[in-house]
Amino acid sequence: QVQLVESGGGLVQAGGSLRLACAASSPTFSTYRMAWFRQAPGQEREFVAGCSGSGLIKYYTDSVEDRFTISRDNAKNTVYLLMNSLKPEDTAVYYCAADDSPHGYSGTDFRSTSAYKYWGQGTQVTVSS
Length: 129
Hints:
Number of helices: 1
Mean pLDDT: 96
Order of helices and strands: EEEEEEEEEHEE
Shape: globular
Radius of gyration: 14 Å
Distance between the termini: 40 Å
Largest sheet: 7 strands, mixed
Oligomer: single chain
């Protein structure tokens, strides 16, 4: 069982930045595919960004492609989401997700909620206009 703990959420004005962090308890963190999802009130949970165990393969949803950056530090068992140029529509609860099952490396292997076994508790991000 892997424990994921998110941090870094908060209230920010439009155009501002936040960096989310997700610390994982597993000693084999580098073998885990990691991702960030978000869920706004009344909406389904959606994929935001994902990366492979090495961090070399990354995917983003179109709406954040030029503004958000996912990265990981395997020595610290932590994955990050740097969010720049935030917009009110980015307001949501952001969830960290992890999985170590065998998988491919296409975008479809990273974008589905069903691809991830472990989830964090979520951190609220609110962007005011």
